[in-house]
Amino acid sequence: MPRSQRNDNFIDKTFTIVADILLRIIPTTQGEKEASIYYRDGMSAQSEGEYAEALQNYYKAMRLEVDPYDRSYILYNTGLIHTSNGEHAKASEYYSQALERNPSLPQAFNNMAVICHYRGEQAIEQGDPETSEVWFNQAAEYWGQAIALAPSNYIEAQNWLRITGRSKE
């Protein structure tokens, strides 16, 4: 039984029922329907901290999903898991792939910025101020893109950009 059919709370059950109805009404291929189920199961596993299971479901969904927009969210969530696991290079690759398919995904730009900022902080700790500036400038670029897409979000990033003189305002 798919994970999405084992949900115990009312909201998850309701979402699953609505999603199932929409999949029946909207003309989609069998592969797209299966991809949607794997994606939902991946999100469910991810929300419960079952990252290995979530990744398996996301990888299956990616093999079936052909729509670039839908694939962008699968790739983004895969990046989230790799970020949580401290695999920043892998996470950055998934966020980049998500942005290639959906350049209007501010949260992916934000997460790329957070990774770059983290790497900048690491460079400072290692006594490499030149490398830290490169990473911080890259973080500023990504945050600028995220803020352009979602101006009322990322207030801390906006403050950091102003404080460090990297704001383009």
Pairing-aware structural class of the strands and helices? mainly alpha
What is the rounded Rg? 18 Å
What value does the average pLDDT take?
88
Low-confidence stretches: none
For the report, how would you describe the main beta sheet?
none
Fraction of residues in helix: over 70%
Strand coverage percent: under 5%
- How far apart the termini lie comes to 53 Å
Task: Supply the number of helical segments.
Answer: 8
General form: elongated
Instruction: Give the tally of β-strands.
Output: 0
Helix-strand pattern, N to C? HHHHHHHH
Q: Overview of this structure, please?
A:
- The protein contains eight helices and no strands.
- It has helices at 10-25, 30-47, 51-64, 68-84, 88-101, 106-125, 129-149, 155-163.
- The chain is an all-alpha fold and 169 residues long.
- Helix 5 (88-101) packs antiparallel against helix 6 (106-125).
- The protein is 76% helix and 0% strand.
- Keywords: Chloroplast, Membrane, Photosynthesis, Plastid, Repeat, Thylakoid, TPR repeat.
Quick summary of this structure?
The protein has 169 residues and is mainly α. The chain contains eight helices and no strands.
